[in-house]
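Fold this complex.
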Amino acid sequence: MKLINNHFRWLPALLLAVWLLTACEDYLDIKPDNALLVPTSLQDFQALLDNDFEVMNQEPALGFMGADNYYLLPEDWNSLLTEIERNAYIWAEEIYGSSLPEDWSLPYKQVFYANVVLEGLEKMEVTAEEQAEWERLKGSALFYRSYAFHSLSQLFAPAYVPGRAADLPGIPLRLSADINQPVERASLQETYAEILNSLEEAVPLLPPMSSYKTRPGKAAAYALLARVSLNKQDYEAAAAYADSSLGIYHSLMDYNHLDSAVAVPFPLFNEEVIFHSVLYPYEMPFNRALVEEDFYARYAEEDLRKSLFFSRKDDGSLFFRGHYSGQFYFLFGGLATDEVYLIRAESRARLGDVSCALEDLNRLLSTRWESGTFEPFTAANAREALDLILEERRKELLFRGLRWSDLRRLNQDPRYAKTLVRKVDGEVYTLPPGSPRWVYPIPEQEIEQSGIEQNPR
Amino acid sequence: MLLLLLGLLLGSLPAYAQQGPATLRGKITDEQGNPLPGANLYLLQSHSGAVTDTEGLFSLEVPAEAYQMGDTLRISFLGYVTESLPLPEENYLEVALMPDIATLMEVEVVSTGYQQLPKERATGSFVQVEEELINRSVGPDILSRLEGVASGVLFSPYGDGSDITIRGRSTLFANEDPLIVLDNFPYEGDISNINPNDVESITVLKDAAAASIWGARAGNGVIVITTKGGRFQQAPRLSFNSNLTIGQQPDAFYVPRMSTADFIATERTLFETGYYNFAETAYDKRPLTPLVELLIYQREGRISAEALQREIERLQEQDVRHDFADYLYRPSVLQQYSASLSGGDERQRYYLSAGWDKNLERLVGEGNSRVTLNAKNNWTFFSNKLRFGADIYYAQRGEENKGLDPLFLRQSTNDGLPPYSRLADDAGQPLMLIKDYRLQFVEQAERAGLLNWRYSPLQEMELLDKTAAVTDFRTRLETSYQLLPSLEASLFYQYWSGQQLGRDHYPEESYFARDLVNRFTQVGADGTLSRPIPVGGVLDEYMFLSASHNLRAQLQFSETFRERHELNALAGWEARGVESRSSSFRYYGYQEDKALQAAVDAATLFPQYHYPGRRLAIPNGQELDILHDRFLSYYANASYAYDRRYLLTLSARKDQSNLFGVEANQRGVPLWSAGLGWNLHGEGFYRWKALPYLKLRATYGYNGNIDKSVSAFTTARLMGNSWDTRLPYAGITNPPNPALQWERVEILNLGLDFASRNYRLSGSLEYYRKNGRDLIGYAPVSPVTGLAEFRGNVAATEGQGLDLQLSSLNVAGAFNWQTDWLYSYATTTVTDYRAEVPAYLLLQNGVFPREGFPPRALYSYRWGGLNGDTGNPQGFLDGEISEDYGSIIGNMEPDSLIYHGSLQPTHFGALRNTFSWEGFSLSCNITYRLGYYFRRESIRYGTNRGLGGHGDYAFRWQQTGDEAFTQVPSVPEQGSSYRDDFYTYSEMLVERGDHVRLQDVRLSYTLSREVWPGLPFRELQVYGYASHLGILWKATSAVPDPDYRNMPALRSWSVGLRANF
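Structure:
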């Protein structure tokens, strides 16, 4: 009896020990914060790509700041909030001071997000029901990455010169989320090829139009292909891509239906928007940038854009308010049908198809004029048509960050080359065609960390 | 499952109870009847032994033959005279041991939270603060009572960073707070829920040997709080304590500000230069001060120059700080009452207590009250073999938080309150202030049909209802069973829940509610108004719920072999889980009396009435967070003593947590420590009679620290819903980092303890090295990677220091004078950091690591004096005097900055003198903090000529020659943040922080029945206490108090009464 007792006295402790060592295997598998996730599902990837206003649907604003279409009063320039805004206005040698501009880091953040999603998608085992969604997400990620690469190439690499692109430096093309991969600048040709190839790959994966304008569809991919091709001066491709985009979506707003008494006449995600993106919100573009009276005078009296795009401050100065972003303080930079019409019109004019070019232009402008007052534009030849289209392109697409790329492209043609001039406090600054300052310097932090080649200034 | 196990344990018990009468039970105490845990009992001939438990109780199995042979029982305990007595016939024995005259060393028992151990057997660094010392101060918060009495513990008066630092900083960016352990388990709640009157002792664990039992959370040190319990075989004792504390009213004029006259003059100058032109027509209707409005009136010819002058003269007389003193501040009044009842019989002991606190804080409208209830019970069964304990602790706190801090009283986000503002008129009637919008816009809006848009801070304070109710509930069960005379198994369980429910009610009449309604009011094409936010009150409700389960199973072994070998060991397993939820919600159109609320459209973006270009969604104040914190740990700890002379301790622990995104095999971190001790006085050769107690200690090991913000996998966080699409979206918070590890702190501790004859001089000296390994820090990466910087195990620190504790009984007898001196030296240096922090960041106050310097260091620009012609500050550029501030700042390299020293005191401590005579006792504590620097505040001119800025404005350079007696720059013609930054961060404004402070004085008188037989109580103490009495010496003359620069250290005076029946 005593023997048994002696054995039994250990039993509880033994049982307890066994239970403790085995019962709690899953105990530590719970997430420390329910809002945290390791992105592995389609839903997770979608949530990353839907990070619209913090990451994915923004783009650099340096292009806007360096271009014409606006001016600053000297006292406003003096009191600008950031060095970047002040220096970019006068095309100074140094732009960023000690800060790392979002204009460089934000697009690469988008590239990182896109790469995380692309690599995550590759690792997934996809069920049949998930296949369509999987494809849409892959197409989207490729689109966002190309969009970011293209924005960067317009600022930090020289303008595309057909035939010379292999010898010109491009931007670092980041195709992996691994932070240990070396950083190198690709050539300009490789840069454009990567952008175009990824977009071509994305097109069949995407739905025609997305249900949200912050997400890309085929129409957006084609529109971006058209924009990139235009900047590449490949007008045949630009015309074809614009055609494909408009084939899917070609809605234009009749400006007669808009109310110019409202502070911001164009609503968010308006009918013409194909893909929503806004310029990084520096304060200057929305709060201080003014429009020259001469430029304003170039709009016809019946042109509704005169009242919908512009307004006057109490002191009488003109400012722009025709943002397609739906918010006064965000400049729209995304893709919209008006731009695609103008790309097709320009490309057709350059390819010699004057009547189709004018048809596109008149189709667009007829929605901009007061009802019943529009007289279709005519041109005697392709050159006249092109002049007309380029003038209307500038008047339609101002304050969208597109003008910088246009100037870089058009400066290669002596007919359209233009020297920009700024006057501040008696000093006159100029930016002539061919100046190295048409390419922004790469931020110092980047040069320090990766040692890539700096742009000459 | 737990219950089942308990059942099993209980079920197997009767087997023992039948083991016969040959069990000797009893209790070993000191001469005062306090239990001696860990005392040894040994039968010399039959070689049977036992050790007393924490209550001093033992049960010794006596073989039948021991009685026949007339065995001898030897009872020994370190520091006490060993007793040898014949084996008694009875089966209950109580023995009081006498202190060993040879050592005279008081036996202190320290608690690690896992075990109680006599300090003599310890090798680690423990600081024990006993009840008497805890009760020396009277604050409602238990931790603050450690200030100036616990060696090596540094309090931050400013609340910048951690409030308490033990032996310097051992992490850069991870949690820097010490672990708080309450009755053996980590405490998750608000420390202010603990009634200090229930606390028996506090032990601070400072080195690896002391703290490594707490493993991965011990890196910043551990503070172990033990609450009171009853005693076995003690008649019921009733205690009562009450005190009243009056705190000084804050001084509204403490920080010098630009005078009203200077403010008015500056506004006029700014007006002339057109500074307000932009604001006059600003798109957001930003407010202008009353004076600027008057100036506009005068410009427009609506008032005469004379009328303006009269108004200005009137305004010049006013200073709003008088109103702060009259309407917003008050002296604080803190009341504290507590009562407890404790006692016990042979088998059961209990402790019951109740406390009530009521505090009116220094801001009108701020206060709180606290009720605490506590019941602790312990039982023993089966001849003391089975023990069971159950505690319940409940605290409820009510808070009112509607006080208005003048610091937050502003005209708008950008502009402070003009000094000529008035909160109330001469009759005390509340006055309106300009707030958020221009007066003319407000008037025009009201005419257009919007709600009254005026603001009066005093009315607002009256209307608001901001309260919170906090409850804290804790229950603890423990049971232990003596499996063998030397082996005990224990099971502990604790459940804790903390709850905070708060509400901020802004009634319909409040400015907060009216302003929201107005801002969202929409104007139709025909001028009709619609209100997306309905007229009514706004109610914000928030809730924080947290609960934890702790379960611990432990085996303890305690045995003495062949008299000289003492082995104590414990091993255990524990699981800990905390779940917290927080949520908040906002109701619009709220009517308290009808419990009505209205739905609003939170999705649409509405143009704002005052700024139609801005569209905002109605803020819904909705937030939800659910957090889980889980640990599984294994630990073991052993100490071996040979002949009570040589000590060896070992400790190891492995923690695993639910650290997110880490592979299961990487979740854990093993941490260990080892220690050696040598009681020199026990050696035969030791003959030093003046110092009968001398002990050397050395320990080495690792503690850990956790940073849950990093992860080995790419992790993302769901951020809520996008404004534009209402789609849920996520952001990447962590790039993948497969090499991630937990932070470790390596600690070496060398100690010496000594006591002179008759205890006249005693103390300890410790030297330590404390090195942070694999610390989480930032490393720069190429922005092309998509990251601005990389966070990982990239940093290391080295620290070292000294802790000296000395007690001296200067005069002993009827009149006693004792001096206690604490001195600590602590430094930390960053030894490895991959990112180079730019100079401009190093100048900020904060943690900016730089190799070779403390993590929080003070740097500055070299100062070249003021320019005699312009009063411009001058610095140095390439070694030459320069006023090119942009270049000075932009080209500054970290190495070119002047390094002054640490921002945290490197030498600190306290000197406490206690005098007692008959029933009187007077004690006075002086604290000192030395070897650190701070940057004092001064004027920054901004773009508005320093409007409303620091009072140094009055001492600015104004004309040539001023540079001889002032270093405050002139008002610049063109404001420049570079110029301001250069002056702000120049060496001109760096001061030494060293100072000595009269921390507190306590006077008490005790009436005791021992002296006055026939008193109705055993002891009665009346006491007075005063704290923060003032600075005795400081190195700088530039500020009144280096540690309290925005708000004076508020003096307080207390009177109290403590009675024991």
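Chain B touches chain A through 75 residues (CB under 8 Å).
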